Known about the structure:
Layout: E1 2-8, E2 11-17, H1 26-34, E3 44-49, E4 56-62, E5 67-68, H2 72-84, E6 104-110, E7 113-121, E8 127-133, E9 156-160, E10 163-171, E11 175-180, H3 189-197, E12 207-215, E13 218-225, E14 229-231, H4 235-247, E15 254-259, E16 262-268, E17 275-280, E18 282-288
Parallel strand pairs: 2-3, 4-6, 11-12, 13-15
Antiparallel strand pairs: 1-2, 1-18, 3-4, 4-5, 6-7, 7-8, 8-17, 9-10, 10-11, 12-13, 13-14, 15-16, 16-17
Amino acid sequence: MRFTKMHGLGNDYVYLNCFEQKIDNPAKLARLVSDRHRGIGADGLILIGPSQVADVRMRTFNADGSEAEMCGNGIRCVAKYAYEHKIAQTGGPFAVPGQPPCQASLTIETGNGPVKVGLKTDENDKVQQVCVNMGQPALTPQEIPVNVSGDSVIDRSVDVLGHELLMTCVSMGNPHAVFFCEDVGLVDLERLGPAIENHSLFPNRVNAHFVQSDMPTEFTVRTWERGSGITMACGTGACACCVAGVLTRRQARACTAHLPGGDLHINWCETDNCVYMTGPAVEVFEGTWPED
């Protein structure tokens, strides 16, 4: 089985070209290849294959084998792979709010529906940056989902291991719980992360983010990802944190998100209510995984 290792700000996945090969049990394979001691080492597995509704389809499996609806860092890498390996025909320029337009575009099918992306290439026609229209955030408890009453979950108190935390919940195609704090470096993420992920409030589990507001246009975030644990970056999570910052009047709509793996540029556009995320995608190496 041929694979490609790629990452977006250190959020790394093993990518498989399913135009050329068939994968019978991706959940089991995700657990095997993600193992950082006995496998390739990754936050999960992403399949790139044909789509009936888009240029390509991506399926995302976390390190524990569970399937995620969406992956913001992963979709940028899928776009880079599809363009550079010429498995999809690109469209015209892609408008990016507050930035110069991207030279080319693709539509990628995800577990949350088709997503439009723009590609920024260098002089060698290699993709360096990808802008993703992440769509409109979902804010109702039913859409996220989270088992609370009301029309939204904004700075709502929740008990986690005896700590009363203020939580804002957002879905960016997958569920996120955002907690603002004074210093993300002081958060015991290894202890609080799994407790939040598996809290009884979240029927589908949740991604947990602790956010430090540095200034209206910048924030720093640390993440515990559902099914993968602590990761160096979470693209959908950075988008959710920007939305949560706007809702709680801590952040501007256009922000730079500082993550352990690097920076993402986020813009929750007032015109169409969509969140735009721009960041890098990097191919690390290719290899062969034994079929058995």
